[in-house]
Each structure stands twice: as structure tokens, then as C-alpha cells.
Amino acid sequence: MTHGPHGEYGAVLHVAHRHAMAWLDSVDQRPIRPDLDVDGVHARLPQELPEDGIDPVAVIEELAEASTPGLMAMGSPRFYGFVIGGTYPAALAADWLVTAWDQNTGSRQPTPATAAVEEVAAAWLLELLGLPARSGVGFVTGATMANFGCLVSARDAVLRGAGADPVEGIQRAPSVRFLAGDAVHTSMVLAGRLAGLGAPQTVGADDQGRIDVRGLERALGDGEGPAIVALQAGDVHSGAFDDFAAAVEIAHQAGAWVHVDGAFGLWAAASPRLRQLVGGLADADSWATDAHKTLNVPYDCGVAIVRDEAAMNAALGAHAAYLPSVQSVSDPYDRTPELSRRARGVTVWAALRSLGRQGVVRLIDGLTDAATALADGLRAIPGLEVLNDVVFTQVCLAAGDDASTAALGEWLRAEGTVWASSSTWRGRTVVRFAVSNRGTDGEAVRRTIDAVARGAAALGVGGQSARPRDEQVR
Known about the structure:
It contains 13 helices and eleven strands.
């Protein structure tokens, strides 16, 4: 290994920095869709593993040249797919440092720096979201693993409450009832399967996807034994929030553990203007969110939060003679399903430190304002309608029939100014706009509306026809 002012890393990191900056400088204006598909990128990559290695600088040059045409501009302020945010500069730079430091942040003792930063980030998150200050917080890969960590904690806690020992395995334990609304997200379904709970029993939902509280009450009353109830902060199509105050009270009266899937919507709790959406949320037992969505930190950074940190540690903690630990304080690997992991929470610390409390409020409110403006503009396009009540950051758009809606979604993604997901909601095909990027400002909204109007005209949606560029929506 070469040492010195830059050593063996200097030249190759310089090349990586150059390509990274070229990408970041282009994201706002480039077409969002990739220019090449997987096969096209394959064709640009060497297929044979070399017998002898080549210079690292040449490797990075080759990687960037082959890959860039196949990259999706997910950081664009007009990317509305999959509920993906952008990246704050401080969070991106912190992520580079995390990679360079290369700390396996499983235990506090060998990695005091990154463990301390994550603990401060966790405390700030709990304060911002109005959650119990002594909750356990684990930084995981994404919303699915955050839900999984919380459900495993819930499963073991309710089994212990029923007199079973989770250490003996769920095969010998009582059956755990797992209940959710009809609009439960697929990540919650998957997390339940991974946790051995199976698919949730659904209890109904209203037309915006909010759980049917009376249906929940009936379902809890019809059965017996340990139970876990999954609620939602932010429906993936409508953005709607469950009635937490009523649902949590009913669930707790039945002795159930309440978990909240707040992948993107949990952040509404940080905004004084939006807190009416989350009344009663803090009374739940666990919460999951994803910082690469609404907080705009780089992939990956899910957050699992459990009110009873001891229950979280008991369910997720792993101990061995070779693993250092301090008995009076839990380690990071006591709060995640991993022993080895990067210090994901450092990017959360950097984002929150750079934003401050009011910056977070402006971010959340700004995303909501952008979604409202986008919905207003889309409603004004003849032949199109917004199907959901826009209360947070989701907008579901439809044309007069499913075929026209599907065609519009395909046209937008191919044209490249805008990328929005196609989906099915309430029995209709929709184009779903998830406003998650910090850069989605008035200009991005204007360009989005213009692109949708051009697409509708090009396809003749609602009787429109293509018109000269100078007549298009400004």
C-alpha cells in the first residue's frame, strides 16, 4: 500500500469525483429515462474476467463510460417514481466519508465515532417526529427492513406477553394475529412474511386507503391471542393517513401491539402545519420510515423505531464471546437485523445538522405545497382528473379510460422530461406522482404540467390534439 499525501487512492478518487460531478451537474436537465436498457449496458461491459488486473483509474473510467447511458436520473426534481427523494449536499458528502472511513458500525466500542454520530441522529429524529425520547432506533437498509425489525420486535413482545419464549422459535408458540387495512403496502406484507407472521388479515379501508377502524375493532373482537396491528402514515397512492387516535386506542384495548408504516409519511409529524394528519401516532409501539425518501439522504437508510428499546434488543440483539459490548448500553447491532453494516445514520446526522429544525419543516411543507400545485395544474388539463384527495405528497392522475391513462404514462416516461409510475388504484389505471425530491419547486412543477399537457395532446386524450409548441402550457 502506497502512503503519502494521496497515496494509491488519489488518482482514482479524482477520476471518480470528476465523473460524479459530471453526473450531478447533468441530473436536472438530462432526460430522466436511461438511454440504454440492461442488454445495452451489458454490451458495453467487458464480459471476461481478466487474468491479470488493470489500473484502477482505467477501471473507473471504463465503469463510468459503460454505465452512464444506463443510469436513471432519479435525483431529478421531476422524478416522481417509487417515492424516492433527492440528496442534500451535506448528506452526500457525509456518505462519501462513511465509505472512506469504512467503519463496521455494529458495536460502539470499536467504532465510537460513527456510533456516537448515529446516536445523536437518532435523538434528533425522535425529537423532530415527536416520538418517545427513550425509543430504540436502528438504521437499516430501507422501509422493508425497518418494518421487519419492528415486526420481529412486536412478534417477540406479544409472544412473551402470552407466556411463550420466542427463543424456542415460533413453531412452538401461539399463533400471532397480524391485522392491517386493505391498502397495506407490499413492504409491510413482505416484512410480515419474513417475520413468520404470514400475510396480514385485512379489515377494510375507505376510498382513500385509510384503515376501517370499525372493521379493525370487529376483527380484534372476533379472535383471541396475541395480535399486531399495522397502520399507515401515508398511503402509497393517496398519501392518506390512518386515524391513529382511534385505531391505536382500539388496538391497545385489545392488548395488541401497534406498528406504523411511515415510509415517507412519518415526516409529516415534523411539520406544525401537518400534525393534524398524525394525531395519536406517537401512542403506537413502533414506527418505520425511510430517510432516502422524504429526508433526501442517499441510498440506503431506513429507520426502525421501537418504543420499548429492551424489547427491540431482546428480539434483534446477537451476542457472542468475540463481540465487544457494554452491558449497560445497547449496541447498534442490538437494534438491527445485521451485525455488519455501514454507518447509515451519519448521513441522517449531516442532513439534519445542515437543515436544522426549521429547514426540515420547510422541506416537508415544500413537498406538500409542490404536490398541491401539481394537482391543481393537472386538473386544469382537459380530459384528465386527479383521483385522490391531495393531503400530503402523492398525486394520482387518470384519463377517461385505462388505456389512455396507460398510454400517457408510457409517453411521459419515453419522452424523458418527467418520470412517474403507472399503477392501479381503486380499480383504475393511474399515473402516480410521488413528490419526494427537495428540488421539486415551482419551475419543476411547471415543466411537469407542461409535459403532461403535451402528452395528453399528442395522444388525443380528452379530445385534445397536438398543437404548436408556442401554444403549449407554459
